[in-house]
Amino acid sequence: MNRRSRITNSTLYLSEAIQAQEETNPLHELHSKKLIRYDFGASFSNYCKLKAVPYGWLPSIPRTLEMKIAPQAWLRLAVLLGLNIKFVLCMVRNESILVYCQGLGYTRLVCRLQPVMELLSSAVLAVMTCLHQEQDKSVKWLMTYNFPVFSCLFVLEGLMSLSLDPLNSRFSAVFFNIKLGCLIAFSVCAGTAQTTFQEYLEERPCHTYVPFRSAIAEYICVASLLVFSATQLGDLRGLRIVVPSLADDQAASCSAAYSPAFLALQSTTLSLKKAVALSSS
């Protein structure tokens, strides 16, 4: 069995599949798809079971997502939901800037381009959580470029968001500094995280642990991404969205003197009431 495990890589024997149905069998976790990839053959003397975890190493997030089904599925759901929510919130925030500021030139370009960058970065992140190097061999090359492309899109979208913050009527220096700190931390640690993941794709180890420094870099990248996304919700504090029912209530882009029709009607009604009150007195 040990000799075959050094030679074969994906051979599956029917006897092993039958024996693995027992919960006490060492291959039960593999055949029940709790681990979605394993190296060095389907054997009882599996490399992952024999090699001890190096002292001081921590679990790697990309490796865990690659080899474990449950965290991969939950992250896919979170990314897909966040893709829609962040895109809509980004459009609402930029539209409010265009309405209340004379959005011309650079401001107008950034307000229109930032939602697109937000959508692209979220889409690339969704692809990162869906690809598997053993099951998606035809597009395996995408796994090499996914993280660098996402990093560039995320940093570029973050810089656009920072450039629009001073134009926001709800500008907060605290949120601005938090966003800037998240972008700096992500930019510094992204290189280490990419190197670690590239080594994983080339060496294909069947354990999820990496050196302490590499793991901390990955954790900082993920934390920076989550905190930056959370601070984007602060850009919408105090914002009221009015859903118009008439075509006259639709505002043209960059119209600073815009007021909905029902507000104009309300002011006219108030002036008539004042005139009637003055004439009666």
UniProtKB/TrEMBL annotation:
It comes from the Eukaryota. GO terms for cellular component: endoplasmic reticulum membrane; Golgi membrane. GO terms for biological process: GPI anchor biosynthetic process. This is Uncharacterized protein. It comes from Ancylostoma caninum (Dog hookworm).
